[in-house]
């Protein structure tokens, strides 16, 4: 597929993609105690990939995600399963979450849940699926 270069779209992508990336990370970190944080963050990051693809074509997508998208999908699945297995290792059921608490200087008490690991896996998985879809639908046979 031949994508014609648009300076207006390229300028918009240069300003919007970092903003979308930061917002997707915000959704990932804030939403890990409620359902959908990793999925919603992954969708927002995928919109950034779509914007890069629309602005710069296949080269822009490869620049935004330089590794193989199937590897990204596999990594996301491994992270999500690892987050679920922590509950079994801790003596509970699959996807049972546990907390770790730490007192950081200048920040205070920080509680981190194993749900964050699961949500990170879903986040990475959604990004990998979106990048694969863009590559396949855009005509890249890889």
Describe this structure in words.
- The chain has 142 residues and is mainly alpha-helical.
- It has one domain.
- Helix content is 67%, strand content 8%.
- Strand 1 (99-104) and strand 2 (108-113) form a beta hairpin.
- Helix 2 (37-56) packs across helix 3 and helix 4 (69-89) runs antiparallel to helix 5 (115-137).
Q: Helical stretch count?
A: 5
The portion of residues forming beta strands comes to 5-15%
Lateral arrangement of strands in the main beta sheet: 1-2
Could you give a short account of the major beta sheet? 2 strands, antiparallel
TL;DR?
The chain is mainly alpha-helical. Helix content is 67%, strand content 8%.
Keywords:
globular; mainly alpha; two-stranded antiparallel ribbon; 142 residues
Topology:
Blueprint: H1 7-30, H2 37-56, H3 58-64, H4 69-89, E1 99-104, E2 108-113, H5 115-137
Antiparallel strand pairs: 1-2
Helix pairs in contact: 1-2, 2-3, 2-5, 4-5
């Amino acid at each position: 597929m031949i994508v014609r270069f648009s300076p207006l779209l390229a300028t918009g992508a240069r300003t919007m993609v970092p903003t979308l990336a930061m917002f997707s990370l915000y959704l990932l970190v804030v939403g890990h105690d409620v359902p959908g944080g990793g999925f919603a963050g992954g969708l927002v990051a995928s919109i950034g990939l779509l914007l890069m693809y629309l602005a710069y074509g296949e080269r822009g997508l490869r620049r935004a995600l330089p590794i193989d998208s199937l590897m990204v999908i596999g990594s996301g699945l491994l992270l999500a399963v690892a987050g679920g297995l922590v509950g079994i290792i801790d003596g509970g059921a699959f996807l049972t979450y546990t907390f770790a608490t730490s007192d950081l200087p200048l920040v205070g008490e920080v509680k981190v849940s194993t749900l964050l690991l699961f949500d990170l896996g879903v986040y990475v998985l959604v990004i990998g699926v979106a990048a694969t879809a863009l590559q396949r639908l855009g005509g890249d046979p890889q």
